[in-house]
Design a protein that fits this description.
Length: 139
Amino acid sequence: MIYSPATINSVVKHAETIKGMCSYNCPRPGCSASFTAVNGCAATSCPTCNAGVCQWCLVFCGEGRQAAYNHVPGCGYSRRRGTQEAASISEMNVVRDIVVKARIEDYIRTKVDIKLQSLVLERLQRDPIFQKRGIVIIL
């Protein structure tokens, strides 16, 4: 099938937005600096803006690492709920991929025209980022 340039541009734009959701960037509005997950504590802070970030659910918790410390024990995605117990990067990556997948599915359902959804999904499933991390999106 042949698609119009506007359709192709829209599919590419949505796919790029979704790929950006797969990286570990600061969730504070206006920052989006990249950061690296570390073994141990799920409470971290952005090296650029000092936002408190939960490594389980990747949310902005408030100003500074203490805000993330306050959030982590009650985080709904934590595998160590109720504690500040350390976790491995691989354990946090599994949970983060669940969070990212849910956010992507929500984005596709709410932001992508229904006529374009299958084209966007096709493009994403061929992308190395999705293949490497094993993220499969099913609507």
